[in-house]
């Protein structure tokens, strides 16, 4: 048996990256809860390295995030497992762009549709 | 084994950030908690995190599938990852499962930007039931809860996959 279907999630989000951090033993729930409360929206951590956190922030524009940059970084600094360096800054703050999802090519399961599409 | 009864389970956390300790593995304890709530007698093994490498992922599960463990749960590596952002990790769990499983069904959840946000797979390998969960904690928790709740009512792969898909999609604020 082999069956594959696809669905589209129509959610608006902004991809937010903060660099210049030292990270070890991070509980991603701590950062999601802290920033969700600060920004009053849903935040999801999608990638972490030793010096960088990448997040999806739903239903908020990059402009609003820009206005609050200092407070966001200060909030992140208070989370256990995160240490700021003097290079700490928001390095990416971009809203996702709509794609023509009616014309996504078939997806073979090994790569994503967008990868073939580009 | 009746498919609705889980006596033995294997949890495989994946990802270089989990393996190196940069990020705490908070998903595995939650998956264990949810499984034990439904199957109190279940013997659950959580193996050390596996790197984002297709061969290592399959190798980690192969021996357990050969031994007939009832359930194998992969955590993380379900999205497009590095294919969209060079700073994200390499997400290979779903492609490893696509090539390894005997029977399978999947739901690929795309964002409206055309990116693959999550590829959820339910399948079998030998006598083992195999599923994957997304890495973000709230999505992983929603998916495993949907899995155990559906297993009792309808242990069909398609029904399980559908319930897990609905649970993950419900975590996106649409």
What does this entry look like structurally?
The complex is a heterodimer of chains A (118) and B (174). Chain A has 118 residues and is of the alpha+beta class. Helices cover 27% and strands 39% of the residues of chain A. In chain A, strands 3-4-2-5 form a four-stranded antiparallel beta sheet. In chain A, a hairpin with a 3-residue loop joins strand 3 and strand 4 (52-58). Chain B is an alpha/beta fold. Chain B has one domain (8-169): 3-Layer(aba) Sandwich (Molybdenum Cofactor Biosythetic Enzyme, Chain A). Chain B is 39% helix and 23% strand. Chain B has helices at 16-19, 27-38, 54-67, 93-100, 137-153, 157-169; strands at 8-13, 43-46, 71-75, 103-111, 116-125, 128-133. Chain B has a six-stranded mixed beta sheet, with helices on both faces. In chain B, strand 5 and strand 6 form a beta hairpin. Chain B is globular, with a radius of gyration of 15 Å. The relative contact order of chain B is 0.17. The model of chain B has no long low-confidence stretch (mean pLDDT 90). Chains A and B meet through strand 1, strand 2, helix 1, strand 3 and strand 4 of A and helix 4, strand 4, strand 5, helix 5 and helix 6 of B. Strand 1 of chain A pairs parallel with strand 4 of chain B.
Key structural traits:
heterodimer; A: 118 residues; alpha+beta; four-stranded antiparallel beta sheet; disordered C terminus; B: 174 residues; alpha/beta; Molybdenum Cofactor Biosythetic Enzyme, Chain A; six-stranded mixed beta sheet; 6 strands
Query: What's the shape of chain B?
Result: globular
Order of helices and strands of chain B: EHHEHEHEEEHH
Biggest β-sheet of chain A, characterized?
A: 4 strands, antiparallel
CATH superfamily of chain B: MoaB/Mog-like domain
What characteristic shape of chain A results from the CA principal axes? globular
Low-confidence stretches of chain A: 109-118
Q: Which bin fits the share of residues in helices of chain B?
A: 25-40%
Number of strands of chain B: 6
Succession of helices and strands of chain A: EEHEEHHEH
Q: Mean of the pLDDT scores of chain A?
A: 84
Oligomer: heterodimer
Tell me the strand order in the biggest sheet of chain A.
3-4-2-5
CATH fold type of chain B:
Molybdenum Cofactor Biosythetic Enzyme, Chain A
Q: Beta-sheet strand percentage of chain A?
A: 35-45%
**For the CA atoms, what is the radius of gyration of chain A?**
17 Å
N- to C-terminal distance of chain B: 39 Å
Q: Quickly give the CATH architecture of chain B.
A: 3-Layer(aba) Sandwich
Structural class of chain B: alpha/beta
């Amino acid at each position: 048996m082999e069956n594959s279907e696809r669905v589209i999630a129509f959610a608006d989000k902004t991809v937010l990256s903060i660099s210049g951090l030292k990270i070890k033993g991070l509980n991603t729930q701590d950062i999601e809860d802290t920033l969700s409360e600060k920004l009053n929206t849903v935040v999801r951590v999608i990638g972490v390295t030793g010096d960088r956190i990448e997040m999806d922030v739903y239903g908020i524009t990059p402009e609003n995030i820009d206005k609050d940059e200092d407070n966001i970084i200060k909030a992140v600094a208070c989370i256990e497992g995160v240490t700021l360096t003097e290079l700490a800054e928001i390095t990416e703050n971009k809203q996702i762009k709509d794609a023509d999802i009616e014309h996504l090519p078939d997806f073979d399961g090994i790569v994503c549709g967008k990868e073939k599409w580009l | 084994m009746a498919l609705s009864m889980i006596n033995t389970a294997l949890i495989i956390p994946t990802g270089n950030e989990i393996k190196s300790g940069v990020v705490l593995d908070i998903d595995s304890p939650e998956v264990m908690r949810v499984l034990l709530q439904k199957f109190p007698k279940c013997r659950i093994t959580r193996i050390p995190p596996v790197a984002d490498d297709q061969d290592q992922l399959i190798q980690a599960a192969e021996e357990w599938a050969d031994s007939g463990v009832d359930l194998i749960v992969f955590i993380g590596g379900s999205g497009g990852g590095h294919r969209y952002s060079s700073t994200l990790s390499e997400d290979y769990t779903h492609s490893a499962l696509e090539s390894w499983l005997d029977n399978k069904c999947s739901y690929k959840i795309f964002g409206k930007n055309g990116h693959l946000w999550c590829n959820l797979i339910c399948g079998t390998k030998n006598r083992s039931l195999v599923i994957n969960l997304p890495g973000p904690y709230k999505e992983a928790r929603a998916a495993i809860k949907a899995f155990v709740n559906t297993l009792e009512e309808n242990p069909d792969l398609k029904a399980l996959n559908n319930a897990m898909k609905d649970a993950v999609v419900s975590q996106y604020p649409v």
